[in-house]
Amino acid sequence: GLKEELLKSIWHAFTALDLDRSGKVSKSQLKASGGCEGPGGVLSHNLCTVLNVPHDPVALEEHFRDDDEGPVSNQGYMPYLNKFILEKVQGNFDKVEFNRMCWTLCAKKNLSKTPLLISDEDAFKVWVIFNFLSEDKYPLVIVPEEIEYLLKKITEAMGAGWQQEQFDHYKIALNTSREGLSAWELIDLIGSGQFSKGMDRQTVSMAINEVFNELILDVLKQGYMLKKGHKRKNWMERWFVLKPNIISYYVSEDLKDKKGDIILDGNCCVEALPDRDGKKCLFLIKCLDKTFEISASDKKKKQEWIQAIQTTVNLLRAGSPPPHKEARQKRKELRQKLLAEQEELERQMKELQAANENKQKELETVRKQLEAAAARAAEEEKKRLQTQVELQDRFSLELEREKLVRQKMEEQVAQKSSELEQYLQRVRELEEMYKQLQEALEDEKQARQDEETVRKLQARLLEEESAKRAELEKWHLQQQQTIQMTEAEKQELENERIIKEQALQVAMQQLKQLELERKEALEQYEEVKKKLETAANNTKSWKDKVAHHEGLIRLIEPGSKNPHLITNWGPAAFTEAELEQRQKSWKGKKATSE
């Protein structure tokens, strides 16, 4: 609005004022007391003058009176400016004169000392255009999109071609350092001729003036045309200037001698007329009280003026602002929308990043827990394998020992078998001898029968036979004893072998019993682990309850010394210690039964 446009120009003038030793603007530069001497009168009093606002010295003195806070601060001037000056502005002031006054206060301090290709007047117009196109935040800057818009307008007014690639390189260099340019940097950019190479000073000046007229003075179209008089009916050349609600016409383009105005509103209309009375390219502007006949220089100019006037009337009917102001508002809204979308996107990205970081932390926690669990499982597996290896080694040693004992027993059995074979061989020999003796006895009996005569010899032979029989019986008894001893030793070896096999089976059963005991130990370990986790959860719950009830006063009632258990049905019939004793007794009975 109007207030924001005025504030931008005043901001330049205000920031150009000299500061006192404390770094604040002194009161003498802001108020106009004492005959408006010094910079004070230049700002406050002159603002009231150019804006056609009545000056109130009493209000100034009251606002800027000395107090405990010391000199007036920059922030303290804005409430006064809004209340006593800007609130009273009616719009009946010269915009160019107001801007020129603010420009006079700030230009000398801020303009670059390097020579520029544009005049001070052109620099003033660029400064006013900057205030129109700059963002509504302080310190004032013009963003790259508005710089491109302004340079395009100036280039188009000069009749030159727009160098988009050159501006893109400049825009990239600008975006890497800051958001935009200040008014004085924009003046340096246009005055350096970087985007108007090959153009003389006069062409650049005319282009700046054309853009200034359009954007600041709201000149939608201007040019020479012939106008038919209302009284004398003669045709006179006039310089016409079309604005959003009025067409002014002057003697010449210097705008010094104004001849009249055509007030436009939604009821006006423009019509093309046929050539007549020697005049060509005629058109008619109809208003409520008057009608104006105008002749353009050619058909193209005639069509351009008819279209421009009709567009202006249509905007008045719709209550819309001028095209350049509407376009500026749309550009700002688009930038704000893009900025809001970018901020929303950044917010979402931050949320996603935060969520991702939380997920990463959770995953890291889970990973550490899994690693710890894997380490514990590996340790348990290592212990189990170590126990298994120890049992296998012990069993292998027992088997080796058993194998050695068996081997020794087999060797002993083989040795005893060999001795038994020898004894049997001797027995067979004795049996053979016994058979031979029987045959001899038979022979002797036959000889005794045959040779009765030689009884003495026979008696002697009988005696010898009896002696030998006795000896043979003795040998036979010895043989029987030897056989019995061999059988006993064989039976003893067989018993030892059976005892060893039974010991081996006992060792195997002990190994199985150890495996069962290991499994029972693992199950007891898992049960104890679960009980430990349950106890930890109960402890945490108890701590939460204690923290929750901390500070409350509870009545202490007389009762038994031992704490009683409380169930859903009231106090228990026995204490917790008695319960633990019963549980231990029950577990002992269960273990005994198993």
From TrEMBL:
InterPro entries: EF-hand_SWAP70_N, PH-like_dom_sf, PH_domain, PH_SWAP70. SUPFAM superfamilies: PH domain-like. Residues 324-545 form a coiled coil. This is Switch-associated protein 70. GO terms for cellular component: cytoplasm; lamellipodium; nucleus; plasma membrane. Keywords: Cell membrane, Cell projection, Coiled coil, Cytoplasm, DNA-binding, Membrane, Nucleus, Phosphoprotein. Signal peptide: none annotated. It is found in: Cell membrane; Cell projection, Lamellipodium; Cytoplasm; Nucleus. Phosphatidylinositol 3,4,5-trisphosphate-dependent guanine nucleotide exchange factor (GEF) which, independently of RAS, transduces signals from tyrosine kinase receptors to RAC. It also mediates signaling of membrane ruffling. Regulates the actin cytoskeleton as an effector or adapter protein in response to agonist stimulated phosphatidylinositol (3,4)-bisphosphate production and cell protrusion. One of its GO terms (molecular function) is DNA binding. Residues 218-314 form the PH domain. Its main location: membrane. The keyword Ribonucleoprotein does not apply. The SWAP complex consists of NPM1, NCL, PARP1 and SWAP70. It holds the Pfam family PH. SMART domains: PH (SM00233).
